[in-house]
């Protein structure tokens, strides 16, 4: 198999879309009964979003991770066909939709009259968008070329459409719009994965754009790096690190966030610290917290005074901890996590993570939001695009606990995609995306994928047969 035949299994204007808009809004359910697929059914027969998966996560204990990964050191994993044992039962397009779990932060920003205050909540949203990755060590299925995913959440006030727009390299484009015309949120992501012996590093290439329409503001940023440790030996754990710069292109305000690496003794694990500055580069607020827990805002002078006092009182304790620290073994031991962010007096809470369901660990560490993303609610099959990843048989089989069927279907889809590519090459035909087209981000000038519009008109007759 040559490189062109490899299956890469890793991973704007507002259109009116006057459509026969289909809503999958759920009514509040009381005294509901759990069905076999995890959905809830109330006494009046109204379906609610499911709170669990149809089957628990399978065991990976009998699989030799090292036997496979030892051939991949230093390589980009997007160019390698990965065993299904590494996966979780979601497509990467569905993972992208998890950015919207804390949409209320955008709605809050839209209500504020001061641009610096709006930036606080945009920054909190940017941090919250990666919070679902905490302990999510399973790899999402990489989308097939032309695969789509839609998510309509009237309770959260948005609808989203995403599409896999490129196969070499794998690029996913998404577009979200507020149902009351307050904002649009869009971008394209090219995740590069590399294996470094004991860890897998994900570099999130691509720009994310949030437009607050009533304020005529546009914010852009790029997500931090992500690293999964101990893929060979020891307990898997995740850290996010790197600098994220959020730019308000309308006012010149910036928020610079530092996702801190773990460090030698783990004191910085999960911490995020940064500041908001106006166009004159004057610090207006300090932002601090953990991407796994919460984020606060505070006056810079109060923050600096608190940190100076903390360093003075904590120097002796730090010295003692270093003396007691044990020498690490072959695994990158996860440092002891301080679960609670110490709130500095005078701080304002911007965001706090939603607790995960008690059975999350048996369900791929999914959040409640993630648990519902692949659900086919009654009547949904007839209105979804045929390319929607809820129709993918390999993901559906894995979700149902049938790993053998999932593996067979995954191989079938890979071969079908390769055959389609060979046929296009033979006929000298180019692939044409249905819902996005290449263009330039008007705010950054960088290459981007622009939503063409029309998806929610639901004219799907010309969609490709990819499953």
From TrEMBL:
Q: Where is the composition biased (Basic and acidic residues)?
A: 307-317
Segments carrying the region annotation (Disordered) are 307-335
- GO process terms (BP): lipid transport
Does the keyword Coiled coil feature in the UniProt annotation?
yes
**Annotated transmembrane regions:** none
Q: Which domain of life is it from?
A: Eukaryota
What the entry lists under InterPro entries is as follows: OSBP_sf (IPR037239), Oxysterol-bd (IPR000648), Oxysterol-bd_CS (IPR018494)
The record's section on PROSITE patterns has:
OSBP
Report keywords, A-Z: Coiled coil, Lipid transport, Lipid-binding, Transport
Spell out the coiled coil positions from the record: 396-430
One GO term in the molecular function aspect is: cholesterol binding
Q: Does the keyword Transport apply?
A: yes
**GO cellular component terms, semicolon-separated:** cytosol; perinuclear endoplasmic reticulum; plasma membrane
The family note in this entry says: Belongs to the OSBP family.
Family matches, as PANTHER family: OXYSTEROL-BINDING PROTEIN-RELATED, OXYSTEROL-BINDING PROTEIN-RELATED PROTEIN 2
Under which name does UniProt file this protein? Oxysterol-binding protein
State the species of origin. Denticeps clupeoides (denticle herring)
């Amino acid at each position: 198999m040559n490189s062109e035949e490899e299956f890469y299994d890793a991973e704007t204007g507002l259109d009116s879309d006057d459509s026969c808009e289909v809503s999958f809004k759920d009514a509040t359910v009381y005294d509901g009964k759990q069905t076999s697929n995890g959905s809830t059914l109330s006494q009046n027969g109204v379906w609610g979003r499911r709170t669990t998966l149809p089957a628990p996560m399978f065991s990976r204990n009998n699989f030799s991770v090292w036997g496979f990964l030892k051939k991949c050191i230093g390589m980009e994993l997007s160019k390698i066909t990965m065993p299904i044992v590494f996966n979780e039962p979601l497509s990467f397009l569905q993972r992208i939709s998890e950015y919207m779990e804390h949409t209320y932060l955008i709605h809050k920003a839209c209500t504020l009259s001061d641009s610096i205050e709006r930036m606080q909540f945009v920054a909190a949203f940017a941090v919250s968008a990666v919070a679902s990755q905490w302990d999510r060590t399973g790899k999402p299925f990489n989308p097939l070329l032309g695969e789509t995913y839609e998510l309509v959440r009237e309770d959260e006030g948005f609808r989203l459409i995403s599409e896999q727009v490129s196969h070499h390299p794998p690029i996913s484009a998404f577009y979200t719009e507020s149902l009351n015309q307050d904002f649009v949120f869009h971008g394209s992501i090219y995740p590069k994965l590399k294996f470094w012996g004991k860890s897998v590093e994900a570099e999130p290439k691509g720009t994310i754009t949030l437009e607050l329409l009533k304020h005529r503001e546009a914010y852009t940023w790029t997500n931090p790096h992500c690293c999964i440790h101990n893929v060979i030996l020891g307990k898997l754990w995740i850290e996010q690190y790197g600098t994220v710069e959020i730019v308000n292109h309308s006012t010149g305000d910036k928020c610079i966030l530092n996702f801190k690496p773990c460090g030698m003794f783990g004191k910085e694990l999960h911490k995020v610290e940064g500041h908001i500055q106006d166009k004159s580069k004057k610090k207006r607020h300090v932002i601090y917290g953990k991407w796994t827990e919460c984020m606060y805002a505070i006056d810079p002078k109060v923050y600096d005074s608190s940190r100076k006092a903390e360093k003075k009182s904590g120097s002796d304790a730090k010295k003692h901890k270093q003396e007691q620290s044990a020498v690490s073994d072959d695994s990158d031991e996860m440092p002891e996590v301080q679960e609670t962010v110490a709130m500095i007096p005078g701080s304002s809470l911007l965001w706090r993570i939603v607790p995960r369901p008690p059975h999350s660990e048996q369900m791929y560490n999914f959040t409640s939001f993630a648990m519902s993303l692949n659900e086919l609610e009654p009547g949904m099959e007839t209105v979804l695009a045929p390319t929607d990843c809820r129709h993918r048989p390999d993901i559906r089989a894995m979700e149902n606990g049938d790993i053998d069927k999932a593996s067979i279907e995954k191989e079938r889809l890979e071969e079908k995609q390769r055959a389609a590519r060979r046929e296009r090459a033979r006929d000298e035909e180019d692939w044409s995306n249905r819902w996005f087209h290449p263009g330039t981000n008007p705010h950054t000038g960088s290459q981007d994928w622009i939503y063409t519009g029309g998806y929610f008109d639901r004219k799907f007759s010309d969609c490709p047969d990819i499953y």
